[in-house]
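Q: Got a minute? One more chain.
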Amino acid sequence: MATRVLTSWNPEDRTFWQTKGKRIATRNLWISIPALLLAFAVWMVWSVVVVNLPHIGFQFTTNQLFWLASVPGLSGATLRIFYSFMVPIFGGRLWTTISTASLAIPAVWMGFAVQDPETSYTTFLMIALLCGFGGGNFASSMANISFFFPKSNQGTALGLNAGLGNLGVSVVQFVVPLVITTAVFGAFGGEPQTWVEGETTKQLWLQNAGFIWVPFILASTLAAWFGMNDIAAAKASLAEQAVIFRRKHNWLMCWLYIGTFGSFIGYSAGFPLLIKTQFPGVDPLQYAFLGPLVGALIRPVGGWISDKLGGARVTFWNFIVMALAVIGVLYFLPKGAAGGFALPWGPAEGSFPGFFAMFMLLFLTTGIGNGSTFRMIPIIFRTLHERWSAGRGQAAQVEAARNAGKEAAAVLGFSSAVAAYGAFFIPKSYGTSIALTGGPEAALWVFVAFYLTCIALTWWFYSGRRAEVPC
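A: Always. Here it is, folded:
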């Protein structure tokens, strides 16, 4: 086991990186990615399951279904707060192994629960809460990978880890509609349910939405235990990491990351049910997976562009496009009973192609923004610690670099925790807005206002001519 602990690790040393470090870092990255993909799949599985529950006999209201879609976001975001600090305490290898294995608990329980027509709504809520294990994993995964790569490669590495990991959202929304239509596990998978809509009936194995991930979870758990490494220099107590709560830029980046990742995961969680409520004639599961797919695939590109142009510049313009895209969504929504919140222009009956195109633009920009904001964090804290150590000698500069790395890793994890609440608030905002006003427009206007604050903060602190920390 001792060979799995890297006692000497200096990726900023070009010779070390080329001869040894790059190979080890790359191996850890490519084990981390599938583990994170599975975490996102389990976290977001309810976004697909809720669409099918009414068809197999579970009589829940629209607001209750939005609750089931949003509750994993609430628990996942809360767990991220704690997961943010676990890698320096336990080590990346051990924590990745434990956190990946935990995904099997809600996956198996869900598989059995949907087969029992007597399963209560409370039980479904408990399973949905446990799916938050998947949401928590992102914080520790990103913090762990940040230790392995030099600053010049962190935007790309973190973009790959997060972007390909985020693909789990699209994968779950693409795979689940396929596997629930057939007896994938034969007699071992249980009996099918009868799916009913009007006069149409068919067989459905909704339990496969949970069971299908279990073999992959077990394989990924073993890969993490036998293939990953711990970095001795990355060890830190909770007290050492807690210094980030006194850093103003931790809270500023949390706010900006709510706007990027919070939007990505929130829109992903609520997209299928939003389509179903606003365009009843459209099968949401034919289209919903495309949004998260676009957002996940473009995230590494956002990191790469930010490595070239600067994260703050990319983030600033990205938020402008996001605000305009939400206004575009409002334009193409059906003009129903949304009171004074609906745009007075646009087709009265709405336009699904236009609505869908605007959401694709939104997902595209959330992915770019995810990459650009995570590129900003290591640069911000490196810049701050270099300023604080200037003129104090070589030893102080080495210590500053070490502290900057630890604080940046903690902020990467903590900001992702705060942003993950978007997975709860966005779908829940839709449900509340529909319940109170008859449509989702009020929620969407709130999102526009929030993006305007993100534009202002990015300009003032990071991208303007007199920015405090240009990055």
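A: The beta strands are 5-6, 193-197, 200-204, 230-231.
Q: Perfect, thanks.
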